[in-house]
Write a structure and sequence with these properties.
Length: 319
């Protein structure tokens, strides 16, 4: 197998999404008419890597799909984007992961219902040969912990940085954390793992306990907060006209990885990732609004931010 240039390898989830738009979410027990219905490719790691690829990086995706129509749609979408798919496996008889996403047009907020066939789990045995190649970054969502742990250990040995997007406390995920360099989790993850609701304390504990170089969380419309090098960095969210928030966190992570490969400092990393995430929210679907670098830079230059004082960094935190 010929060795090709790689910037980033990702291991984790892909999904085929059914996206339904409604004017407003109904009250419990109510019903509402669907205004539009579309089928689109998405998924946590797959969308992050598509973002990397569109920004000019060379990305390899490692995951699994079923041999059904949804799997064929996902494969076709990733091939169109130019991702390296030599380690993607098609599982006979399995059902490709499904996401049913209801988007409220009035606010752009979405509710996600999902199902994943257990046969889509990536085992460590799928990680054969030179699967990391020349990659400088390994990206993980932690869903298949054993495979992620094997890859993270090997990435550390070859000098690649490990980035993780965790939104669920998967069984045994604590064993993975000490092998992560940049943990940018969903806002629910630190309190679920540490039992600490205070975001500043929670991130400091993650950094201290697991020796994570940068421990952070995405905050939706409020931006992102990161603890790195003994200090906090808060990047407020950008004000845009929101159509659909689906995929914003995935695009954030892909853009963060792009900045890492470019060698940017943390403040610029977070501002750029926030801008890219915001722009993705201006179109329907997980990948509907992935922008070019220049568009994100223009949004940053406008400086229209939504500062939440709750997350403005403090000088110190008592643990």
């Amino acid at each position: 197998m010929a060795r090709t240039r790689l910037d980033v390898v990702g291991i984790g989830l892909n999904a085929t999404d059914i996206v339904a738009q409604v004017h407003r979410f109904p009250s419990p027990g109510g019903k509402v008419r669907i205004q539009s219905l579309e089928r689109q490719a998405g998924g946590q790691t797959a969308t992050a890597l598509v973002t990397c690829q569109r920004l000019g990086l060379r990305a390899r995706y490692i995951g699994r799909v079923g041999n059904d129509e949804a799997g064929r749609l996902q494969l076709a979408s990733l091939r169109r984007e130019g991702l390296d798919l030599r380690y993607l496996r098609v599982v006979p008889g399995a059902t490709t992961q499904l996401g049913f996403i209801v988007v409220e047009r009035a606010s752009g907020e979405r509710t996600v219902f999902w199902h994943r066939d257990p046969r889509l789990a990536v085992p460590p045995s799928d990680l054969k040969g030179d699967y990391l190649g020349s990659a400088r970054v390994l990206h993980l969502d932690g869903c298949d912990v054993a495979a992620c742990l094997r890859a993270a250990r090997q990435a550390r040995r070859v000098g690649a940085r490990v980035v993780a997007d965790l939104d669920t406390v998967y069984p045994n995920v604590e064993g993975l954390l000490s092998h992560i360099d940049y943990l940018i989790a969903a806002s629910n993850f630190p309190p679920a793992l540490t039992g600490i609701d205070d975001p500043f304390k929670g991130l400091a504990i993650l950094s201290r306990e697991y020796k994570v170089q940068a421990a952070g969380m995405t905050l939706g419309r409020d931006g992102a907060l990161v603890f790195c090098g003994g200090r906090y960095y808060y990047s407020p969210g950008f004000v845009v006209e929101v159509v659909d928030t689906t995929g914003a966190g995935d695009v954030f992570h892909g853009s963060f990885i792009y900045g890492l490969v470019r060698g940017w400092e943390m403040k610029r990393l977070l501002d750029f990732a926030n801008a890219m995430a915001a722009l993705n929210c201006t179109a329907l679907g997980a990948r509907g609004g992935i922008a070019r670098e220049a568009a994100a830079e223009r949004l940053i230059a406008k400086g229209r931010r939504r500062v939440n004082r709750e997350y403005v960094p403090r000088r110190s935190v008592s643990l």
